[in-house]
Amino acid sequence: METTNHLRGKYAIVGVGETAYIRGAGRTTRSMATEAIKRAMDDAGLQPGEVDGMMSYSQMDSTLSTFVAGDLGLRLNYFMDVWGGGSSIEALIGIATGVIEAGMCHTIAIFRSMNGYSGMRFGGTGKRAAEPLTGDQLHARAYGWQSPAQMFSLSFMHHMYQYGTTPEQVAMVKVVHSEHASNNPKAIMKKRVSVEDVLNSRMIVKPLHLLDCCLETDNGTAIIVTSKERAYDLKQRPALIQAVVGRCSKPRSDMYYQHGSLSQVAGHYAKDILWKNADCRPEDIHVTGSYDAFTFTSLLQFEDYGFCQKGEGGEYVSNGTTRLGDKRPNNTSGGHLCEGYTHGISMVIENVRQLRGDVDDSCPIGPDGKRQHTHDYREGGCRQQPGVELTANLGWATPGTGSAMVMRKG
Predict the structure, then answer these.
(1) Across 121-135, 162-176, 206-220, least confident range
(2) Is 269 assigned a catalytic role?
(3) pTM score, two decimals?
(4) Distance between CA 378 and CA 232 in Å, rounded?
């Protein structure tokens, strides 16, 4: 396969922002999107006239870019609102770099705003349960595939059967993310949990217990992408975009179980694009942000992106490697399992902050206004990993579709 790397390091994320992660916001998605983008603009030091592009993703549960732009006083030279959930953020970042490269605009805000608890709940209840049957749902729902947990559980069960992966190993994903979240002031679920807590929580869809599943959250989140040259005139140290894979798929992404191993996910194909274009290897990465809709989704992606051998994911997620202070921490904010569910964008925000060295943890702020990171990862302490130069985001939509991105410290 021919790939290209001439855009490596040419574009950057220069601003990040979010609302609070809560349940029952009592706000419109338009209001939360406007707040998140304004926070990202302030973070970057940008005025309204300095942002001329906007993109968003949703599953018919958000607000159009043009409405939000008007609220912010922006006139757009380019906008696009796409249908999608998981894996969309990395794909849109890739599109943003191409749009700027083509000269259609110079600075793009990308947002996701969702009432994922009080509105459209992705667990298959509430408004979602009342949706009319259309498209693939005509097949899936008839066989009990109402929710993501039901749809993906085949892959998880097959991995356990094929490789002997144990529930205790997989539960460690939740345990580690809860440790990280306990040091995150904005996380919804700050309580540290044990393997026994996960296994004793009620079964949702075998092999998934309640604590194997992500949170449902109301929130708005945003990032801003511009050129490297422009980035260095702005407020923050840029996170340089080294490579992006956008919505790579297995040969049958609609019925993923019909091609290849059930436990093989789209990262098997995406890795060949990602690492070549980023000019690095999995072992070079210092921090990962792996989409944790469920504990299992991170495990499968670590294998297929090459962080460990196929079948060794259980060992990888349970041996301490992904903890803060260890070799390659994952989801240092607590991720979807503990911080809040955002369809992936919050993991990009977290990795941008890790590259800057300024995650908003529980460490004290010094006289210079900067957080004084202690690197003490005990409960209520630090979540900044020292020496972060390269990060990887591993996006997930289904076992058959995924996106990814590598960023470098600017």
Answers:
(1) 121-135
(2) no
(3) 0.94
(4) 35
